[in-house]
């Protein structure tokens, strides 16, 4: 897959190197030649020196030939501009944008061309909650512009789901159980799988089905 990464800071370079190692064709866009000269990247990374916020630069970089754009600069305004240009001017199918400041996360949506926003502070908060919380539904990640969420819940002793099979939960169609983590083992949920206390349930839900899953796994409605 052809992937363009805007911003050659520590995050952008790490992403570019990692994607090349995974076998992708990667273009790293950076406006500073000095940054390029000081940076260590995999030989497979292609550099383009230019301003990713300028349409003319993106045309020279032949951005329209890429499948994915990752807006990874350290500036939220730049990431939004790059995302919008990539979507509206070059019709990039998939755009992933880095959120540097959580207060700006609400802007990283389809209106700005963003298909997936990644907020490190939000992820860290979710991981801390996941580590210390039992009997609560924790949002780990959002997909499809926030319409789909990956959530986790560790079943408490009083969970209404304990000792029930997956089929007995009678979950709505737009709830997909992804995995049951039990101790050191990960199980694929089957209709006959029986849920136990301390099971970690990973699921995909929509905005509409989030409360339904919370009720099924925790018994709580708010």
From TrEMBL:
RCK C-terminal domain location: 138-219
Chain ranges of the RCK N-terminal domain: 1-118
SUPFAM superfamilies from the UniProt entry: NAD(P)-binding Rossmann-fold domains (SSF51735), TrkA C-terminal domain-like (SSF116726)
Gene Ontology CC annotation, any one: plasma membrane
InterPro entries: K_uptake_TrkA, NAD(P)-bd_dom_sf, RCK_C, RCK_C_sf, RCK_N, Trk_Ktr_HKT_K-transport
GO MF, one example: potassium ion transmembrane transporter activity
Keywords: Ion transport, NAD, Potassium, Potassium transport, Transport
Pfam families per record: TrkA_C (PF02080), TrkA_N (PF02254)
The name this protein goes by in its record: Unannotated protein
Organism encoding this protein: freshwater metagenome
């Amino acid at each position: 897959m052809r992937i363009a990464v805007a911003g050659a800071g520590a995050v952008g370079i790490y992403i570019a190197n990692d994607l090349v190692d995974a076998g992708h064709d990667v273009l790293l866009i950076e406006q500073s030649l000095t940054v390029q000269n000081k940076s260590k990247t995999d030989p497979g990374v292609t550099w383009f020196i230019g301003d990713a916020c300028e349409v003319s630069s993106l045309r020279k970089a032949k951005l329209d030939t890429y499948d994915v754009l990752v807006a990874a600069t350290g500036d939220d305004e730049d990431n939004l501009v790059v995302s919008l240009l990539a979507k509206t001017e070059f019709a990039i199918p998939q755009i992933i944008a880095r959120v540097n400041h959580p207060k700006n996360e609400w802007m990283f949506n389809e209106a700005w061309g963003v298909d997936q926003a990644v907020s490190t502070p939000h992820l860290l908060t979710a991981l801390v909650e996941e580590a210390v919380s039992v009997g609560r539904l924790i949002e780990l990640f959002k997909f499809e512009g926030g319409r789909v969420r990956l959530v986790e819940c560790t079943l408490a002793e009083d969970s209404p789901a304990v000792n029930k099979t997956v089929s007995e939960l009678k979950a709505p169609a737009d709830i997909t159980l992804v995995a049951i983590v039990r101790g050191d083992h990960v199980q694929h949920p089957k209709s006959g799988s029986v849920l136990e206390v301390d099971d970690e349930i990973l699921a995909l839900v929509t905005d509409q089905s989030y409360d339904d899953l919370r009720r099924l796994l925790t018994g709580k409605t708010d």
